[in-house]
Amino acid sequence: MSSDALIKGLNDKQAEAVQTTEGPLLVLAGAGSGKTRVLTHRVAYLIEEKGVNPWNILAITFTNKAAAEMRERVGKLLGESARDIWVSTFHALCVRILRRDIDKLGFNRAFTIADSGEQRTLVKQICGDLNLDTKQFDPRSILSAISNAKNAMQTPSEYAKQAQGFFDKVVAKVYTQYQQQLTANQALDFDDLIMKTIELFEKDADTLEFYQRKFRYIHVDEYQDTNDAQYQLVHMLADTPEHNLCVVGDADQSIYGWRGANIENIRNFERDYPNANVVLLEQNYRSTQTILDAANEVIVNNTDRKKKNLWTDNGKGELISYYRAQSGNDEAQYVVEQIRKQMAEHGLHYNDFAVLYRTNAQSRTIEETFVKSNVPYLMVGGHKFYDRMEIRDVLAYLTLIANPDDSLSFQRVVNTPKRGIGLKTVDRLRTFAADHHWSLLKALDHLDLANEINTSAKRHLSEFAAVISNARRQMNELSVTELTNQLLEDSGYLQALKKSKSLEAQSRIDNLDEFLTVTKQFDQDHEDDDADHSELLTNFLADLALVSDQDDVDESEPAVTMMTIHAAKGLEFPVVFMVGMESGLFPLSRSMDDPEQLEEERRLAYVGITRAKRKLYLTNALSRMLYGRPQHNAPSMFVDEINDSLIHSDSPAAALKNVPFSQRLATKQTWRELHQKHGVHHSVKHENTGSGADKVGWQVGDKVTHRKWGAGSVLAVHGTGKDMELDIFFPGLGTSGKKRLLAAFAPIQKVEK
């Protein structure tokens, strides 16, 4: 593709960013301003116009989804030559570097990447060894502190030196043992991937110089989300006379401070590189002007930011709908009504909608209402495929084969399926292995010396060792699929599930079959690779270890997407509901007295608003049950910050928006009194776009027909009117046939006798 063709179709600022190829470049890209287009065209421009070799270009993203999209777009521009460009996440980049050179740090190149479950297991074991009460010292909190330390590039000894309070000192002890155990297991956690790469560069100048020469042009997406370790990694790679570093980001969308992201990285780019060029992208291609005006009016209240004003040629669009519900259930029912209404009036599908909330705890009421109303939904951040027990089991088997030093994986599968090896036996084996500085698998070669383990247990352990040993002998000859199939048979895992014959066991078998489609796809994609099968197995496991929540978001799935606003970063939907827009929920109560946290909450609101392409709904409730107790919250200040001319009130209760925020916080009146004072009535009429079954008289024993589930019988009737719920048994669904449905929305009809 010619350079003229690459520039054609870009606006002036986008073209400027693409053609500014030499030296440091900061692209401040507002939401929906086409930053991925700029990055991909810039990469293509470097190759086509400047003659740069594809393998001399690096592009770093934050998610596999973003990396895949960038790879695909560059491929369409360049064809086959795009395959040689390094496009990856930070973690995937570091895995590739470490697989090649981590032996210089004394590690095995076939190191394991410990997942979050294995990390928690290890911390729990360490807490037990240290006689720490895990109720008082939550392993998740300890792991979070360790992660923050690693992101700040603190080793265990450095963390221990600065530990002040009692909790910090406990973390220091656990961190020290945690890192020792990971090293003994030849395992790295996610934070280690970056930390070890930096350590490698610091200790081996030749390796650093190799990658500095290799990556002549470096691109970093979402630069505002980098933490200190990621910043240092990029800074080291770009530390050449040319400083050919292009970073793209938006400080207004920096929302990950709680997990270590440092907004100062993007704010200080011009200080780090005084000769940097800066390009500002303000034209939005995603949303209507009304939605952008609302986003602009919210974010302008943050003080420490570069001025930026989003605009679009998409037209003004619909007003934002605001609904102040009486309760959380009322709010959820309003969401269902509006989804049905939008589908009927605009021909939309379920996958055109997203429901965003500040915390996962808020999802329950919406989810229950969707279930009862027959609205299909996809919950991001829920129980994922790779989190399922059987998938984690088979991955642990494969990991142990690839890395026999991984005692965490050993402990997961040594008695899975049950083979007569109890917890006491495993504890005795751990002690025996630790005394001799062996991994648990290595210790099985010397069971004759383990006097504390009885004969029966030794026999079972030897049988397990034989399964693993046989698989390790064959892993150089078998594909990942063949090896997995053999393991499932030889370990007895598949046989145990088939023997059970329960519905749960059949579901697990189905999941294992689905896992085999993953292995087959990997084998097909790598059938021409020169690497031996053992190396391919290691690469397969690394690929799966780097899967993130967003990679599970299928925007073509015929279902409403439910997720936190954090999880929605980088996504877009025609219609977005931001629910729970209440003081104390959003912004969170703990941020109200902290200016920095409050500004991050406002940036989060800005991100949520700009996910909407055509229509935005903001909702909250007079009262709701949350965390097991009733809450009565004022509307969010972020709603107040939007000009009334941009908002259409969908209920009389929305008149409360016109009460100054400070007055709402200061008032000691009850919510009912406050409502009455401002002429708000409690009888809120909904436009019913449901089935109308709530207007039918129902009795126990009535027969119904459901559009999808067929014939059924009413078992119980709860409530009246729009709140009416029916317990119905559908024989065609078997043991799971009892359903509780909202009569107002369920696609049912009464069968007259």
Provide a compact summary of the structure:
This protein has 753 residues and is of the alpha/beta class. A hairpin with a 2-residue loop joins strand 15 (624-626) and strand 16. It is globular and about 75 Å long.
Helices and strands, with pairings:
Elements: H1 3-7, H2 12-19, E1 25-29, H3 35-48, E2 57-61, H4 64-78, E3 86-89, H5 90-101, E4 112-113, H6 116-129, H7 139-151, H8 156-162, H9 166-184, E5 187-188, H10 190-203, H11 205-214, E6 217-220, H12 228-237, E7 245-249, H13 264-267, H14 269-272, E8 277-281, H15 289-299, E9 320-325, H16 328-346, E10 353-357, H17 363-372, E11 377-379, H18 389-402, H19 407-413, H20 423-436, H21 440-443, H22 455-474, H23 480-490, H24 493-500, H25 503-525, H26 533-545, E12 560-564, H27 565-568, E13 573-578, H28 595-609, E14 612-621, E15 624-626, E16 629-631, H29 637-640, E17 647-649, H30 661-666, H31 671-677, E18 703-706, E19 710-718, E20 725-729, E21 738-742, E22 748-751
